[in-house]
Amino acid sequence: MKAAVLYHPGAADQFRLEERPVPVPAAGQVLLRVRAFGLNRSELMTRKGLSPGVQFPRILGIECVGEVVQDPSGQYQPGQRVAALMGGLGRDYDGSYAEYTVVPKAILYPFRSQLPWAQLGAIPELFQTVYGSLHLALKIQAGQTLLIRGGTSSIGLLAAQLARIDGLTVLATTRNAAKSDLLMANGATHVLVDDGQLREQVRALFPQGVDRALELVGATALRDTLNCLKPGGLGCMTGMLSESWSIPDFAPMEFIPATVGLTIYDSGQVTAPASALQAFINSVETGQVKLGIGRTFPLDDIVAAHQLMDSNAAGGKIVVTT
């Protein structure tokens, strides 16, 4: 099989395309024919050597869609369409940047769909992250106000759509005013140009603050985001577009406004049920939800795909097909 192997952390050009034997599944594992996978910021961090515990050489890739080739237990039938994500995939063991991969059954999500593989490849981690952030962490409700910081990211664009469908007023941010139309087309009610200090902009619209906030920029913006929330509001840190997870000299009593809540979402710890994934795929098929796919690349162009992710200029999810 063809695989993109990373022997050493570094720039995108460190990937090496090579032929490897097709892996053999052990008990509790399933062999998949990978058809497509989305790129994720966490893979960029791993590529740079910023993911603790990852040993090289490694085939990256924390998610994929494809077909079952072999399940020693017989639970999954050959040809069955499945998604796989997280659970150590691409970090603790080789992941999806290959034509075949072996995964634990625990991270499989069977689904039914006739969507093209390039569209399906954008869904697993994107959906899990957005659904988990909005419903499992923030517990959004119709009538609430939601601030999405990092609104032009693939997660931000889908979160705006789903929150608007669920009856929320959405404030979405961008550092580039030229992207305002993109945000409005994806469900934003208000667009805020992010200069690093949003509190005054938010409170000009909602003097008491907003009910919920989804933080996708990361630790560098989190304090200001929490100050955009009303008393009793709730913020969720999910992303790290700034590539910053930690807060130096964190003092909770000074950092978090009184009565405001802070949580996080991590699809490696908590995931949505398979029924929710199927319902989301159905909503894409009917056109209720638009998938924001920036560009699609073949596996041979994995270097170019990562270089585009580095540039933050994709304008949506980057998908690689095999």
UniProtKB/TrEMBL annotation:
For this UniProt record, give its keywords in alphabetical order, as a comma-separated list: NADP, Oxidoreductase, Plasmid
SUPFAM superfamilies (alphabetical): GroES-like (SSF50129), NAD(P)-binding Rossmann-fold domains (SSF51735)
Signal peptide (residue range): none
GO molecular function ontology, one term from the record = oxidoreductase activity, acting on NAD(P)H
Domain Enoyl reductase (ER) positions = 10-320
Q: What SMART domains is this protein classified in? A: PKS_ER
Q: Does the keyword Ribonucleoprotein apply?
A: no
Q: Can you tell which superkingdom this protein's organism belongs to?
A: Bacteria
PANTHER family with a match to the protein in the record: QUINONE OXIDOREDUCTASE PIG3, QUINONE OXIDOREDUCTASE PIG3-RELATED
This chain belongs to the protein called: NADPH:quinone reductase
